[in-house]
Amino acid sequence: MKKLIVLSVKCPHCGTSLMDETHEVNGHPGIKLNIENDRERGVLWLCPVYDCFAHDCNITLKEKEIVKFYCPHCNKSLLRDIPCKVCNAPVVGFNINVGGKVNICSRKGCENHYVVFEDINDALQLLYDKLDNTAKK
């Protein structure tokens, strides 16, 4: 059976958790983000399970449109100066609570995402410890 990797992320600017305990996506607290397209502003909740692309949104997003992402706490942009290697749209970045960063594409429908660790050994140990503690509950 494949173990799910459930990420807990925070804003890279203010350090506040982006996890929303009041809005679950696939049975887990959603990653809450303020978003904006060319027509309106809204809220997006991403599934925190790595490799799951489920989400909830309170505005309509068109397939392949690029969305701007903001922290719901400090309202700073989460877009990074890195283009997506698949579609060239801006990449959105969050800090992972156990260390490292997760980056996702800002284009609706592009499934490019990846995790980056500064010290892979320490970060993986923290992640494994968290998974072991979750499995024991």
What would your notes on this structure say?
The structure is a single chain. This protein has 137 residues and is mainly beta. 12% of the residues lie in helices and 37% in strands. It has one helix and ten strands, in the order ββββββββββα. It has one helix at 120-136, and strands at residues 9-10, 19-25, 28-36, 41-46, 55-57, 68-70, 79-83, 90-96, 101-105, 113-116. The strands form two sheets. Strands 1, 7, 8, 9 and 10 form a five-stranded antiparallel β-sheet that branches. The longest helix has 17 residues, at 120-136. The two termini are 18 Å apart.
Main sheet overview: 5 strands, antiparallel
Ranges where pLDDT stays below 50 over 5 or more residues in a row are none
Radius of gyration: 15 Å
Number of strands: 10
Beta fraction: 35-45%
Q: How many separate helices?
A: 1
What percentage of residues falls in helices of 4 or more residues?
A: 10-25%
Structural class by SSE content: mainly beta
Terminal CA distance: 18 Å
Please tell me the overall pLDDT. Answer: 90
The coarse silhouette is globular
Give the H and E element order: EEEEEEEEEEH
